[in-house]
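Example record

The entry below shows one chain as it appears in the dataset: sequence first, then structure tokens.
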Amino acid sequence: MAPHHFILLGLLALTSYVALASDHSPLQDFCVADPNSPVLVNGLVCKDPKFVQANDFFFSGLHLTGNTSNAVGSHVTPVAVTQIPGLNSLGISMVRIDYAPMGINPPHTHPRATEVLLVLEGTLHVGFVTSNPENRLLEKVLQKGDVFVFPQGLVHFQRNVGHNNVVAIAALSSQNPGVITIANAVFGSKPDISSDILAKAFQVDKNIVNQLQSRF
């Protein structure tokens, strides 16, 4: 085969690899979500640009303290495509997280996003666990102004280890990062996961599983 054929094949292979390895880039200035559209797509259908307003790119409320009077002592205020339709197709969102003293954001994952967390006030213990088989825990105590990254899909958590409230802001690499809280998913699924399965998985008595499921 002639040398220029090898070059052509190489360029085609490289182009195909890059195309498959990259996220799709927007093909227009914006795609403001139309939540009322009956059409189902991977994401949300675009609103007609003629009807787009500045408020489609606006949210007010991150200055408000979240209500942490709950079982875990924390509150997450999301700013994703549901709150800002203009985030549709842009691949980014954010949250404010408030923590009462000793409050936690329990172990959870974001199936569609990496998270970058910034502590605005207080002292926060954070960590994530690597995938099987190592299941290595990487953890650190953060102070005001510190930043920590939670890789996409890995189980992670935060805990207020100070005596005052903690406030953090996090950016996520998806307009709709999703969240799977481990305890809620495992013990609060609808319908319940069989207690036989969970008892064997956690190596505990079925009565303990039943008790946990009753709490979720």
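Notes for this example: The two ends are 66 Å apart (CA to CA). The chain is about 20% helix and 25% strand.
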